[in-house]
Amino acid sequence: xxxxxxxxxxxxxxxxxxxxxxxxxxxxxxxxxxxxxxxxxxxxxxxxxxxxxxxxxxxxxxxxxxxxxxxxxxxxxxxxxxxxxxxxxxxxxxxxxxxxxxxxxxxxxxxxxxxxxxxxxxxxxxxxxxxxxxxxxxxxxxxxxx
Length: 146
Fold this sequence. Notes:
single chain, two-stranded antiparallel ribbon
């Protein structure tokens, strides 16, 4: 696959894995957020609330799919660089890149992020760290298919 095809695959799979984990932990409880995506809102009869746990990646409002995309792009960029340098994809590396992903997410969402997420990666709760690691492990999987 090409770089951007890999990024698209990573973004989609990360959302699917998050949904699987949400379902495992919370069952059918919705995970609703409000969107500002006017196109998405118009397509959904003027409703601005989206249940992320029940919405496929391809049907997400733009701000949510973009967030996944940017995290996937960051992960793939760093994994490609490490792969070309033959750096091992060990747990330390995964944590380093997950921290970068969180930092870049904070740059984009810091003003609107929940208070608990406005901290350095090392201070995040474990369930939040897992979300960032997913992007890295999927990027490693994509790289190893090249």
